[in-house]
Write a structure and sequence with these properties.
By secondary structure, this protein is mostly helical. The protein has helices spanning 2-20, 35-40, 50-70, 78-91, 97-113. The protein has one domain (31-113). The chain is 68% helix and 0% strand. Helix 3 packs across helix 5 and helix 4 (78-91) packs across helix 5.
Length: 114
């Protein structure tokens, strides 16, 4: 019995260590685009162009994927995501669309809790 308990504890510790190691993330496509590139798709009139639609569609797909993986429903719409991504990218021009999307998710989760 003691041996079984010791083996069980060791398995729990080993499995916990594997989850605590950071995962390597390789991002491709629109998520790897710089905020400077994203801002170029925003015109001064507030209109929507094809490239901007592609970027924001990528953001919504990323949020959907996150929601699915974490089993945490996250709701947003174009009217919220577009300005948030624009403001973030304006402030952090060297970041990527992925970075902006992660911050958007964090923001949405914070506002969901309140």
């Amino acid at each position: 019995m003691l041996r079984t308990l010791l083996i069980l504890i060791c398995l729990v510790l080993v499995s916990g260590e594997s989850h605590s190691q950071p995962r390597e993330l390789i991002i491709s496509g629109h998520g790897s685009r710089s905020c400077t590139e994203i801002l170029e798709s925003y015109d001064n009139k507030g209109g929507v162009n094809f490239r901007k639609l592609q970027y924001i569609s990528w953001v919504h797909g990323f949020i959907t994927s996150y929601s699915y993986q974490k089993n945490t429903p996250i709701e947003t719409d174009w009217n919220h995501a577009l300005p948030f991504i624009g403001l973030y990218c304006n402030k952090y021009k060297n970041e990527t669309l992925l970075d902006a999307s992660i911050k958007l998710i964090e923001h949405l989760l914070e506002t969901k809790i309140k």
